[in-house]
Amino acid sequence: MKKINKNKKSQQEIIGFVLIIVLVSVVGVIFLGLSLSRGETDRKTSVTVANLLEASSYYTTECVVGFVPQYKSGQELIKSCWEDDRCLDGRTACEVLNTTLKYIIQQGLEICEDKNECQNKAYKVYIYYSPLNEELPNEEILKFQEGIFEKCSNSYGGSHSIPLTTLDSGTLNIELEVCGS
Amino acid sequence: MHAGCTNMIDKKAQLKIQVHKNHRFLVPKSSKAQLKIQEMAFFLVAVLLFFILVGLFAFSIYFAHLTKSANAVSEERTLSSITNLADAAEFNCGEPNCIDADKVIGLMQNVKYEKFWSFSSLKILRSSGFPMNKDESKWITCTPTNYPDCDVFEIYDKNVKNERTISNYVALCRVELENGENYKRCEIAKVIAGTEIEIAGE
């Protein structure tokens, strides 16, 4: 009888010890999970990307309106794309904007699928109109992606806003997210 | 002997025994109890060690993030100093983060600017010289004679031993003539600034 009691006591002690370890492990896993998920939700913002977008808004594009040399700048082209304008050569402003931005981003950020040749492997561009009234939804102007973004562990991005001329008209925004090799 | 006296002697003896008993009470009754105490002590030490290990693990994760963010902040500071450079009157084209190429060509003739900025070297790379277009060895340095058919504006270089370069994207604009009319042509360029690194023992 005494032996059985002794065994029960030691079993209880073992269970208690296991319970403490399990409890501490669970707390640890929750803490780890929280810290890791916080890292994922915070997208790394890059000054370089933001500056590239700002510089591209002054870039002289191939889109001409009226007569040569009335070339449109990057930000004027975004406005024209939003207003569905056409260039003098018949192409739509959105087509020219798409080609120009692809060229600037690929050259500037060295993006290609070969890891050894380029610094980055993929990017996403999202251009949208954001009204001053925050309750109204954003209007998509242009969205495109190059390369494969899946399983990207090292992504960073930036944005640039172009205010529209009239005070109540809101802003045109351009966002760029890059996936590093 | 007197009865009261014998009672007193008995009580004294009892007290002595009690004192003796109390001394014995401080020492564990058996080796079993000693073992129990030892077990408990080991258990407490193990739990404490476990908590310390978990704490250290958590701290290492926390401080790893802290170092990363500190590096990012210092990089952003350096980058913003180059951005400010593009906004300086000596370079600016009239818009933020935009450099006037004609001003740069004029600036290249002036040696005094080596002491004006804290950078050990300063150059502006045009998009034609970007790594995807051309190797560094094939860059053509801009001069007043070959401009704009060149790749890099070398403003100054102090030729220091150990140098770390930081670059930033800017718009590089120049005035061009087409169909009898002047207009501003802008392209993407990189401002590359070098800072001297102090290495211990050198």
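qc> The mean pLDDT of chain A is 84.
qc> done
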